[in-house]
Amino acid sequence: MVYVSKIRLKVTKKMNKEKFELMKSLVQKNDAKILFFVMDGLGGLPHPDFEDKTELEIAKHPNLDRLIKKGICGLTDPVFPGITPGSGPAHLSLFGYNPMEHQIGRGLLDTLGIDFDFTQNDMAARGNFATIDENGIITDRRAGRISTQKNEEICKLLSNIKISGVEIFLKTVKEHRFSVIFRSPSLNDEIEDTDPQKEGLKPLPAIAKTEKAKSAAELVNKFIAEAEKILKNHYPVNSLLLRGFSKMIKLEKYQEVFQLNPASIAVYPMYRGLTKLLGMNVLDAGQSIKDEFDCLKKNYSNYDYFFMHIKKTDTYGEDGNFEEKVKIIEEFDEQFERVFALNPDVIVITGDHSTPALMKGHSWHSVPSIIYSKVCRHDSVETFNEKECLKGGIGRISAQYLMSLAMANAGKLKKFGA
Amino acid sequence: MVYVSKIRLKVTKKMNKEKFELMKSLVQKNDAKILFFVMDGLGGLPHPDFEDKTELEIAKHPNLDRLIKKGICGLTDPVFPGITPGSGPAHLSLFGYNPMEHQIGRGLLDTLGIDFDFTQNDMAARGNFATIDENGIITDRRAGRISTQKNEEICKLLSNIKISGVEIFLKTVKEHRFSVIFRSPSLNDEIEDTDPQKEGLKPLPAIAKTEKAKSAAELVNKFIAEAEKILKNHYPVNSLLLRGFSKMIKLEKYQEVFQLNPASIAVYPMYRGLTKLLGMNVLDAGQSIKDEFDCLKKNYSNYDYFFMHIKKTDTYGEDGNFEEKVKIIEEFDEQFERVFALNPDVIVITGDHSTPALMKGHSWHSVPSIIYSKVCRHDSVETFNEKECLKGGIGRISAQYLMSLAMANAGKLKKFGA
Fold this sequence. Notes:
The structure is a homodimer. The first copy, chain A, contains 14 helices and 13 strands. Chain A is 35% helix and 19% strand. The longest helix of chain A is centred in the first third of the chain and has 25 residues, at 2-26. The interface between A and B is large, with 49 and 36 residues.
């Protein structure tokens, strides 16, 4: 798997560069505004309990249907047909990057949610504070779910650990959960988890999967040893378990690639972190969908690209809760009416992948998508759902092209060649 | 041209690796069964003598239409739009491999049909036994179409030829036709045919097209010289003509790539040979379409992937016999009814390419295709033909994705990324 992903990395860099660099070379700045709406896990499947219809087919969305009267519809593949993506690859694709080139490790993805300024020298891992007995056996992987406040105290203490050649940052997430970031040049993240994921076992040492990762693994083990010394008198917290070691990924910023002044509106921390990586200005999105649209309206004049992420379509999809997913779509549609007044130049509405309530999880199915602009060559689709999008003018394309299409519709891409 | 195709090869190798390796890294084994039906040359063109309809539009196929009520349709490109493929590339694509990366030489393709266990060190060529006169001029390229029995006797004799550093195998095909396989490490197959394809000329020497192929060409010439000595007293057979020198291609087996236990049901020898290369268990398919479905039923419980190949749709297409091609489709449909009782998890029905009776040959036209599973997101297509497939949920994709989609629908692909 490690080997595979290495082959892939080399290869895709070349493949991706070609199209990506071409687009980059054509970007021109103007005042046009792009609104990019992502309903997480939007796509669905016909459900036997609901007239054999999909979530989008059951939901009422008069405002989206009003938009597509002047828009163009289609279906997008996050990676390629048959591949079910996690949130990381699915979003990178929507942002216009090749999801096979830039892979975000679990630890990094989970750590992106915390308020932290990552650098290219950072390696992150997610951590649990845990309880071990006198024999070093894990008796509680969550140290009795200590309070977030207690967590903060302990993180503060552990932040004092000094290991030469490396900076170490500890960040409280919640209760027993924290993130640790090791900052040092040329760390290699191919390290096994120290969390055995089970009680009744000893914490594992950090083992390097490759020669290159040896020094990083040693560093991690040193840190754990130091930490356990400090934690001796903080029962129930007397150990820690680390997993998902991952290096910061190199992503060109939106400012460089698209010459945009981008803003991100997302309630869920992970998406705030991810868009921050891309150079987006992370706005205060509040908690509800209405809050997110309030945020859009408030900041509308300050940016030329807005990414808005709606989380709960995916959450309810994963719960298999068809009706609640329908309600979220309807809630989004109701708020979306406010966008017409803003009269943006380009609107994209899509999902990062499908999460059919029927399957209770992410799926490979292509994602219904809308692009609106005054020059989008609108098609004859009249209502927004999976079946209708089949007839749409976008056809079936890779989700990576939504961004180049958005840029083109905004007049932000020059002609290629004479 | 050679230069160009070499560039293309390099590039596509990379392109392919990327997606192929990603898919491979996501494969997980389960008990789901995939049935993969290929009607060779399935796609057609509207025919003026038949109400300006295609073979599929004229044919009655109630069972396929019953399947698509719960299935999803679309059009597939064997290579890319505009490319008319031979059977080799067309099938490699259906099997999920990049047809531009793995190119099967003519000699190999023709030799695949014989019952022979190829190794990576083998170079195959197709041969004719021929008659030459005292001046070495070819008087009969087929040596009077000698009996297959006579052919076998001669192959036996020639199998005694010993050349150091190489094993030589002669295999009777039929009448005057045979295959020769040279087994030795590092043979290079860039060798000109020795068959001038005309009578009244002398057989040509085997000429190396490249420096690398020199030693292989010498080997072939040595073999021919030895053979002609032996054939002195076997008039009308006193010479042999070789063409289509081709090395064995390296293809990862289905077991490795897809972790499947695959079986192949094909009447036509070439497809038995090709699927054997991929590690498929080649079953006794009998002679008729009914035999093939009997074979499927008999072996259904023993494998989790079945490839079934129907040859005659292509044969009649190439003959320009519209009505007979229609009948084969109807015969397939009639037998297909038996599949419903087996209740497989995933069904794919497609063609390797189009062979419109109107054109009497393979064509570049995209191929009508069906995927069925309980989670395929079925579309509103109601009958199976080229026009209706345009409205289908698969859209227009590369035929290579039929396999990744089949695997996804079978629950055999894990999620990519966090």
